[in-house]
Amino acid sequence: MRVVLRQAMLISVKDTRIFFMDKFAVGFAFLFPFLFVIGFSLALRGQGPEDEPLQLVLATQEGADSISAQLVQGFAVEGGAGDLTVMAYEEALAATESGDLTGFIAFPAGFSQSLMSGVPTTLEVVVGDGSPETQAALQGFARSVATQLSQGTVAFSTIGRLSGMSQSGFQFPTVEQDDFLPLIGFEVERVGDIEPFQPSNFTLPAYLTMFLFFTAAMSAEAIARERQSHTLERLVSNGTRRESVIVGKFAGTAFRGMAQLGVMWVVGILAFGIDLGASPAAVIIISVLMALASATFGVMLASFATNVQAASALGPLTALVLAPIGGCWWPLFITPQWMQSLAKFTPHGWANGGFNKVMLFGAEFGDVTQEMAALVGFAVVFMAVALWRFRMSSSAS
């Protein structure tokens, strides 16, 4: 093992020196990504979520004299038309199915009877496809309504038992337009404006991911060239082990990836005002794991390339195909669900997903452990394939 590590270190140092002597390769790896970051950051400046209030839509399947109808009317009177909309159940359901409405809360048929008789009942939360924010907001509002109704029912029942009356002897207060007595009150509080997101917080990690894998994929061409020129065979004939070559190529590519990470994050923080979010440690770990996965990816590609021409085509092709699928060209969270699912088959998708969670949505370290584990899994699989298929000579490929 000591011999393998020593030989691998010598190979990685040699490859790194050759890389930094190539001005085009250095420019492509370190300077070219910033052109994309600058361009798209300027194009997306001032863009972001609009500061629009949540529109609550309520509906009931009961009659006008029911408790649910009184609740709906009470909410409408108290909240005003700007905060809450009352719709017929069939109309709200049709609007949700057509996409005109993101979702609504509905009181089902028999709600009032169940409430008065003490039988458990439910509130329906109907949400269209692709509306997780609306679903979370409506579910929270529905739980709040259910809690207050439950407390009111318990209070009425207790008063009834103490006074010797049955629960059915009590009636909920009715709503009069001129003398309003709400069954449940709610407040709409503004806690601040929604600020446009910092475009660099998305563009820099996305293009960092893209060019990290791009540079690693292009290293397959250098390995194929050494194989075709019989350099790898001469290394073996001089006592270098096959495992040493594979680990050395991996270590050299990983080192260049770490250098890319360091340069881009430092420049991003100092020049672009990048915010690493609530857990900078998570961003760093995801970056390191991404560099390791990209390095194993480059060695694996070299094991499939039979010659220099194949490697020169295979590297850019795979990098350019995986980049958009994995969310390097656009945020995954704005893409259709099928594309988000497809991104799970790429290391790019897991890396960008982790970056977006931490840097855009305020996630903590524990929220991105799944993304970290996925990157480790990709690195292990790529290395296993490389160890299985890697050949030292072109005739053996």
Task: Using brief descriptors, characterize the structure shown.
397 residues; mainly alpha; four-stranded mixed sheet
In short:
With 397 residues, this protein is mainly alpha-helical. The protein is built from 14 helices and four strands.
Protein described:
This protein is mostly helical and 397 residues long. It contains 14 helices and four strands. The chain has a four-stranded mixed sheet, with helices on both faces. Strand 1, helix 3 and strand 2 form a beta-alpha-beta unit. The longest helix has 32 residues. The radius of gyration is 30 Å and the shape is elongated.
Strands ordered across the widest β-sheet: 2-1-3-4
Cα distance, first to last residue? 26 Å
Low-pLDDT windows of residues: 47-51, 165-184
Major beta sheet summary: 4 strands, mixed
Tell me what portion of residues adopts beta-strand conformation.
under 5%
Radius of gyration from CA coordinates: 30 Å
Share of helix, binned: 55-70%
- The topology string of helices and strands comes to HHEHEHEHEHHHHHHHHH
- Helical element count? 14
> What kind of assembly state do the chains in view correspond to?
single chain
The number of E-state strands comes to: 4
Structural class: mainly alpha
- Average pLDDT level: 76
Basic shape: elongated
